[in-house]
Amino acid sequence: MIKSVRIMVAPLEASAKYGDYKMWEAAVGDWVFTNTNLTPAELGPYSVRSVARITLKPELYTSLDNSGAMGLGSRSGAQVSWKGMLEHI
Predict the structure, then answer these.
(1) DSSP state of 12
(2) For a designed S-S bond to 80, which of 4, 44, 45, 51 qualifies (C-beta 3.0 to 4.6 A apart)?
(3) Helix, strand, coil: what percent of the chain each, to 5?
């Protein structure tokens, strides 16, 4: 479970350059591990969606959601993974 903490990660924009994306990926990984003792790859589908909503700009999250990268909704049972989501960014 993710503790209630301040987010120290700037939300990723759809127009981010590769270097910004890699810095964001590392920062999110550090933030998740610091607060959960899990890596992003170990998060379940609901947590992946939650972290994505917190750390992505709304336009990018919506684009991923519309493309199916975020599954078919939180109750669909679709297996959303951190790696699978990153492959769509």
Answers:
(1) B
(2) 45
(3) 55, 0, 45
The set of residues, in sequence order, having a beta carbon less than 8 Å from that of 70 and lying 6+ positions away, is: 48, 49, 52, 61, 64, 80, 85
Q: Whole-model pTM above 0.85?
A: no
pLDDT digits (tens, 9 = 90+) for 37-80: 999 999 998 899 999 999 999 999 999 988 888 876 555 556 78
Residue ranges covered by each domain of the chain: 30-87
Helix (H, G, I), strand (E, B) or coil at 57: coil
The C-alpha atoms of residue 29 and residue 55 are separated, in whole angstroms, by 11
